[in-house]
Amino acid sequence: MKEELRKKILAKREIYPNWQEDSHKIINNFLLKLDLSNFKTFMLYYPHKKEVDTTVLIKKLLQERKTVVLPKVSGQDIKPTIIKELDNLIVGYAGIKEPVGFQINPKEIDLIVVPAVAYDKEGYRIGYGKGYYDRFLPKLRKDSLKIGFCYDFQLLEKVPHEPHDFRVDLIITPTQILKTKKEEVK
Question: Which positions in this protein are listed as binding substrate (predicted)?
């Protein structure tokens, strides 16, 4: 079932005409909801194949002198690696741009935007099927804020999940901000 959902949503995302406009709306919703002064170290992803475009947010955070890290795949693991700009990324795993540089301890990450193919309203996600974030998320501090960015069609009522799966705390779409846990967002 997960694989069928993954294929269906990826096919829809591949032909989605409003991805750039909706990416801007998602980033604006993020900036309206969160007081960035509460966070020092942000982990985002570099967008690939019409994922929500995070580059504007990455540039803004760098301008505000925040510590920004992107994932670098090493073997079966993600290594959070500091970036200073977007110009010195190289093509890495699966053709996704990756940083070169200093890696940090995942415990230093205050806020992470977790990529996914789809989310449900409880904050569970369908990833890309390789388990990188399933292995990475348990390494974060319990109080690290986990956020999902997605287009409205990627937010489903329910996705299949296992007891060990991590939920995101907040899901941001072009039209809504959904808090998935009872704790208050910083």
Answer: 51
Give the separation between CA 139 and CA 166, rounded to whole angstroms.
Answer: 11
Place of tokens 């693991």: 77
Let me know if residue 126 belongs to a domain: yes
Q: How far is CA 7 from the centre of its chain?
A: 19
Question: Does the annotation flag 123 for ligand binding?
Answer: no
Looking at the domain assignment, is residue 186 inside a domain? Answer: no
50-94 pLDDT, tens digit each? 999 999 999 999 999 999 999 999 999 999 999 999 998 999 998
The verdict on residue 184 lying in a domain is no
- Give the pTM: 0.94
Tokens of 64: 């505000």
Contact 160, 13 (CB under 8 A): no
Is 184 annotated in a binding site? The answer is no
pLDDT digit string (tens) for 18-36? 999 999 999 999 999 999 9
CATH code for the domain in which residue 64 is found: 3.40.50.10420
Q: Domain range for residue 82?
A: 2-179
Q: Is 140 annotated as a binding residue?
A: no
